[in-house]
Amino acid sequence: MATADPALLDGRIRAAEITVAAHYGRTMVEHSVRTSGGLVVRVIEYPAAEVAEVALPPIVLLHDIASVNALALPLVAALPMRRILAVDWPGHGLSGPSVLPRGTDLRAHVVAVLDNVLDAFQLTQVDLIGHSLGGQFALYFALRRRAKVRRLVLLGAPGAAFGEARPATAERALAVPVVGTGILGLSTSEHFYRRRSERRIGSRGLDGYPDQITEIGYLASQRSDFAPSVASLFRALMTPFAARPLTALSHDELATIGVPVLMVWGENDIVMTPATGRASFDAIPGAELLEVDGGHMPWLNDPERVGTAVSAFLALSMPRD
């Protein structure tokens, strides 16, 4: 455990977040949203750093499972004219705990949490950026709340939203009751956490980025709420052998997404490569694909190219705006 004092641990996370945000030219404002189900969701607001010529809706940023929003700050830097709301998913970051009961309807749960977040900020429409599981959740929301989503960016393979996904060998044990919580609750070093992260990004993929990016993720994983919350989310997603029914979106469902989609996909994504998941991607009408020489966090592998593409895609307006 990084520290036995929860307040000190949370203070270290906040201090590191402020440092990284400032490094990328952004300030941050914390908000707390209580959902209709009683969850406490922390939302980090990055106000626009520059004045935009055209008013566009805020961007809602959704991170991966067992991850943090700080990893996306190099991409946030490419969007200086946009107001961004980064959601610490329940049980992650500095949000409150969220141990999902057995049999939870994950799609309904995701939509309810995001409905509550948008309602708290009185938002009728947003752009969504989702990484991995965050992309899966963004697709769920776009499917159920089409009118509320203007544009959608998927970063990396979108979790188990595509039917070609299979549970990684290392993650199967996390879906086992008690065992998963025990594994996630093991005390590790920040060095080990960084090495594990680099396996998803690519060798030395964090070189050149502020050390606090790794520190934030590591410290968040040492909070007492993290292990039981994240383990319950793994169980809601999969059994030890396969994704749970209705986790993946069928091709027929993907065909009804109905909003413009840009997918940024690393050619060596360890979760699912573009070649493996191509059939599901092709089912999304008019979706644009940017393949990057990289892994599961492609914006870190090629920040300039990805930042330019995402900024241009989200700057476009649609007739219904």
Order of helices and strands: HEEEHEHEHEHHHHHHEHEHH
The stretches of 5 or more residues where confidence is low (pLDDT under 50) are none
What's the gyration radius in Å? 18 Å
Strand order across the largest sheet: 1-2-4-3-5-6-7-8
Number of domains: 1
For the record, give the distance between the C-alpha atoms at the N and C termini, rounded to a whole number. 48 Å
CATH secondary-structure class: Alpha Beta
Taking all residues together, what is the mean pLDDT?
91
Helical run tally? 13
How is the CATH topology named?
Answer: Rossmann fold
Largest sheet: 8 strands, mixed
Task: Report on the architecture of this protein.
- The chain has a single domain, classed as Rossmann fold.
- The mean pLDDT is 91.
- It has an eight-stranded mixed sheet with strand order 1-2-4-3-5-6-7-8, with helices on both faces.
- It has 321 residues and is α/β, with parallel strands linked by helices.
